[in-house]
Amino acid sequence: MYSLNEYNESILERVDECSLLDMFINAMKHHSDELDSFDHVDDKSIRESAIYIALAGSRSFNLDIETSDQDFTAVRQASINSVLSIDGPKEIVHHLKPDISIYELRHYAKLLLLGNPKQVESLFTTRLCYLSDHWKALLQCRQAILSNVVIDHYYSTIKALVGDVTDIINSREVVDSSVDQSNIKSKPMSAKQQRMVEKNKLQRVLQHQEQRDDEYKLNKRAYHALRLMIEVERLLDNGTPLVWFEDGPERDLLLQVRRGDIDDQQILKLIQPRFQSLEETWTRQRQSPNYHLKDTSDIEKVSNWLVLIRRQSIDSDTSERFTYRPNTTTTTTPQPLMLANQLLQSSGVNGTLLFMSKVGSHLYNLNNNNADDNSSSSIHDWIGIYAAPTDQVVSLFPPPIKVEQMNGVTLSKEWVARDLSTPPKPQPQPTKDITTKGIILYEVSNAIECIMRGNYRLLECFLTEQDKATSDTLYETDAWMAIKEPIRRLITGRHLAQSYWGVGQNEYLKARDTLGMKKLHQGKKKPKGYTLDNVDNIDHSTVTKQQLDEVSINLYFALRLLWQCEKVLDGQSRPSLALEYRDEKRQTLLSLKNQLMSHSIDNIQVLMGSCRLLIESTNDRLEILRVEQRSDHLAGEFKSLFNQWLIKVRKGL
After folding, report:
1. What is the pLDDT of residues 308-335, one digit of tens each?
2. Does 261 reside within a domain?
3. For residues 524, 527, 528 and 529, what is the CA-based torsion angle, rounded to 10 degrees?
4. Which pLDDT tens digit goes with each residue over 359-391?
5. Using one digit for the tens of pLDDT, what is the confidence trace for 55-103?
6. Fewest CB within 10 angstroms: 313, 516, 520, 611, which?
7. DSSP designation for 123
8. Do 621 and 513 share a domain, yes or no?
């Protein structure tokens, strides 16, 4: 039995399906600590996850020499729970000695569609390999992969290799190892001279080593460049990549180059004209109306293949599913569901609504006695969370991450066009959703990410009270109710308080900047002339009415959020979002919101001072919580709760 802990140039004496599967199982077990908790590492599960395993490198091409070791490549199917989880599966498991690269299914598919030579060659490998039924299904559409994208990737790789070979040959220096030491030996040497001699000896040793390394790099790069050029020539001639070289002139030439039997100038004469000819041939063929290769690979076929494998895993899972029905007895379509579906449909986005609530002034009882609710011209603020179809989530076309009534659709960073074209430039988006108007719908994965980062508006979704709402203002499904209470218990502490405090402080600092006030300095060391007496001073002569209006809105958000922060710090497990009608804080906030206080700069100055003191006092209390509730522990608890829930949500759609 071989050991993956020790280096062996050839770990398999015989390469067949059984030995490849055994090696794959051992490799996955060896790296089990790199996998997530959803991946099973028992022999049966690992064996079933194997999609493709093969000998790689020079031995797989029948181009190995005496010093060639064994390289292997494999493709695996991660467990469906890992695929549907927050972080997703590990994309590559890589063992260094011997070289074993194991690609997760989706990552392999992406590399394949980018035209990576190693991945393309695997589709035409039939010797020394293990092929699962899933892999054999992919082979049915391998011709659809061959395209200009593949040629371009091959071409770029060849160009880099030819450049490296040329640079090595041009920069090579002959090391003179026959320096006459007789004069040095015949004379007594000082300690300094002895050190110089030893240093020169070391330099010569290093130069020899560098020369040997260059020789190895030169031969290997020239061999790879020539082999890939042969493959591209075949592709341009309507053939397929050559992944096994039978005895003959081509194989003999490649082995000569690989062994270093050809001198530098011969190598240059061999690869440079051939590369130039290849460039000219490709350019000429692309301009021909009869050119046989498409511009892009058929991403649709590969994506469908990937989705089919994932769907089979989901359908074979018998765990309980959500119904996604609303938690209400109404017989008519709830208004939130109707609004969300209208926005999704008009934006060309598919999804199932999990939660939606009216937010903003309505939620905080700061809507001017409901005047805005009665106004037909008013745009109401809503936040919703929806789940994209799971088949789209696991495909090569990830769904949008957010749909907004005012700002349109936000694409995933992984977004891929169906023709592999360059994605459009994203529209400028507000860094915070604090003042965004209208309906905002978050795809559930993006919502979880924002919640874990501390988006207070999404965090407040867990604080909405069903008994204080109607079907016209709140929509909750069984899926949402399953996660609402566990997350509410988790957020009503440091996480929510820190979110309120951070955004509140930011709004306050924006107000200071607008008013041209002195910069606040934290810590004990203060600049000269800096005192608490003048830190809140405002130069009345330079402030305009427009600036005071802006500051009023900044203070409206800052004070409301900081007062909410106080509630959380006071230990309220269910801090009320709505302010009582007679609450003085409500009257202050309404005055700021309606910019009634911007007529009085003195009132603004007083509120700026109060806001600063509130920031300082709440920060002191937060410091205690930062010690008691570590952020890494909170992140772990969030991920644990959300992972199980998200997987269940995805499996039912």
Report:
1. 999 999 999 999 999 999 877 677 888 8
2. yes
3. -90
4. 888 788 887 654 444 443 456 889 999 999 999
5. 998 899 999 888 888 889 999 999 999 999 999 999 999 888 778 999 9
6. 516
7. T
8. yes
pLDDT above 70: residue 202: no
User: Of 144, 168, 198, which residue constitutes the final position of a domain?
Assistant: 144
Final residue of a structural domain among 227, 260, 286: 286
What are the residue ranges of helices labelled H in 8-113?
A: 17-30, 43-49, 80-84, 105-113
Q: What is the pLDDT of residue 376?
A: 38
Residues 519 and 559 reside in one and the same domain: yes
The residue behind tokens 């709440």 is 618
Token digits for 337? 């569901």
Which pair of tokens denotes residue 442? 């978050």
- Tokens standing for 427? 């529209």
d(C-alpha 287, C-alpha 269), whole Å: 28
Q: Does 541 share its domain with 458?
A: no
Query: Do the Cβ atoms of 65 and 220 come closer than 8 Å?
Result: no
Name, in order, each residue with C-beta under 8 angstroms of 435's C-beta and a sequence gap of 6 or more.
557
Measured distance CA(404)–CA(383) in Å, rounded: 9
Number of Cα atoms under 13 Å in the Cβ half of residue 154: 27
Query: Given this model, what pLDDT does residue 637 score?
Result: 85
Whether residue 462 is found in the same domain as residue 569: no
Domain extent at residue 39: 17-144
